[in-house]
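It would be a great kindness if you could assist me with a short task in structural biology. I am sending you one protein, given as its amino acid sequence and as whole-number tokens for its backbone shapes. I would ask you to consider whether the tokens describe a fold that such a sequence might reasonably adopt. The full record is reproduced below for your convenience.
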Amino acid sequence: QVQLVESGGGLVQPGGSLRLSCTVSGTIFGIYMAWYRQAPGKQRELVARITTGSTTIYLDSVKGRFTISRDNVKGAVYLQMDSLKPEDTAVYYCNEYPGTWSWGQGTQVTVSS
């Protein structure tokens, strides 16, 4: 069973940046990968997706601020988050797209002054 470990979250002021990392115990070659987030009281939502050819799509509210990338050799997926806003506060998870693997623990991102 594939295991997902997310890291890199924390408390940051509005306008700040964070870089999230996700390590996958299995291979990610040939697999679409994605970052998701879940804010308190809300459903989990897709934040960004990256194809095997590194084509990306983003949630409208994060376009121009977040960048997803992948390293197939390391089995890792990253999310660079810039110009963070309070509404980005959530637990962030990575998974394959459309999210059929077992979920990891996620990493908490809190944007607050």
